[in-house]
Write a structure and sequence with these properties.
Layout: H1 3-32, H2 54-64, H3 68-72, H4 79-112, H5 122-143, H6 154-179, H7 193-218, H8 249-252, H9 254-281, H10 286-311, H11 316-341, H12 346-349
């Protein structure tokens, strides 16, 4: 692949990453404004056109009035109020369609022109398939709130979030590979302790983000508005005895999930600090040191944002900032895996191909 073609694929992959981040953030806005259940049908093609005229709007409103959310939560909502939440969800779905086109059209171009060989196209096709799957999973999530409950399943919401970050990780990883011009792999057994520790960092971060999804799905952020105490206790009594068996409380009880999410953040910080000292002791590259320092700073910022969200009663703008910072943390952790995986090859792993000077 020529340098020009590689640059085009690299830009495309990072644009797709930006789209995923924007979609997740906008999805958070939709959720926080209770707009996600306003469109009660999934029409991938005809749904591109919003209601036109008073009669069409009234028909959509009547469909929404049959849902549990209207009957149990928004029973006083007017047609004008419905239009506002409808348009937020409509824009959300429109962005998803646009993102799909940004993925598929350039990919087809790269494949037809041979820029991406068909024999090496599996991972890129998987990214495209991931977008289609996310759309279907999004509707599967929404449908759980249209039957007998005024909110979506917190399990399905968390699955939707985790699939999004998995797709983000894959796209970002391939972007890094193109950016650094596919450096050679290390021999078996050559991976460092820092590399394994960076994987642990991602694992801990994914658990924390999963709890963030459960908190969002159960609206558990409102369970307590104090920090560090909850209901006057550092560890509220009976958190594991609300339902049986005890372990179900970890994924079903709002108070327990809130408690886990607020304190598991410090596990992320501890692993990041340990990785910092390992990298310092083993004289890793400056790129790795910078990445770890960014990870630590972002973790402190994220903890501060989380505390502020609790204290201030989950304001929308602050909750969205908290969610966006989580995505930056995740990308930084993926970057550290990549860099630590090539810690023995600093000349190929830590300098982007676009910045290297080629010999004459």
């Amino acid at each position: 692949m020529s340098a020009k073609a590689n640059r085009a694929v690299t830009i495309w992959l990072f644009v797709v990453c930006a789209l995923i981040i924007f979609m997740v953030s906008f999805g958070g806005l939709v959720r926080l404004t209770r707009s996600g259940l306003s469109i009660v049908e999934w029409n991938p093609v005809s749904g591109v056109i919003p209601p036109v005229g008073d009669q069409a709007w009234q028909l959509e409103f009547e469909k929404y009035q049959q849902t549990p959310e209207f009957q149990k939560v928004n029973h006083e909502m007017t047609l004008e109020g419905y239009k506002r939440i409808f348009m937020l969800e409509y824009i959300h779905r429109l962005i998803a369609r646009f993102a799909g086109l940004i993925v598929v059209i350039p990919l087809l171009y790269f494949l037809i022109r041979g820029i991406i060989p068909w024999r090496k196209s599996a991972v890129y096709l998987l990214i495209a398939a991931g977008f289609a799957f996310q759309g279907a999973l999004g509707w599967y999530m929404v449908s759980s709130g249209l039957i007998d409950r005024p909110s979506v399943s917190h399990y399905r919401l968390t699955a939707h979030l985790l699939t999004a970050i998995a797709l983000l990780a894959l796209t970002f990883w391939m972007g890094l590979r193109h950016l650094y011009n596919f450096p050679a792999k290390e021999p078996k057994g050559g991976k460092s302790f820092g590399y394994r520790l960076s994987w642990l960092l991602v694992a801990v971060l994914v658990i924390q983000m999963s709890y963030g999804g459960l908190v969002a799905g159960l609206k558990a952020g409102h369970a307590s508005n104090t920090w560090p105490l909850m209901f006057g206790y550092l560890i509220p009594p009976g958190m594991l005895s609300v339902i049986e068996p005890w372990w179900l409380n970890l994924i079903e009880t709002a108070t327990t999930i809130h408690f886990m999410h607020r304190w598991f953040a410090f596990a992320v910080l501890i692993v990041a600090v340990v990785l910092y000292f390992v990298a310092r002791k083993r004289h890793y590259s400056q790129a790795i040191h910078n990445g770890i320092l960014l990870m630590i700073v972002l973790t402190f910022v994220q903890i501060g944002l989380g505390i502020s969200v609790v204290w201030l009663g989950v304001p929308i703008w602050l909750a969205l900032l908290h969610q966006g910072t989580a995505l930056l943390l995740f990308l930084t952790a993926i970057y550290l895996i990549y860099q630590c995986g090539h810690a023995m090859q600093p000349e190929t792993a830590t300098t982007p191909a676009a910045l290297r000077v080629e010999p004459a």
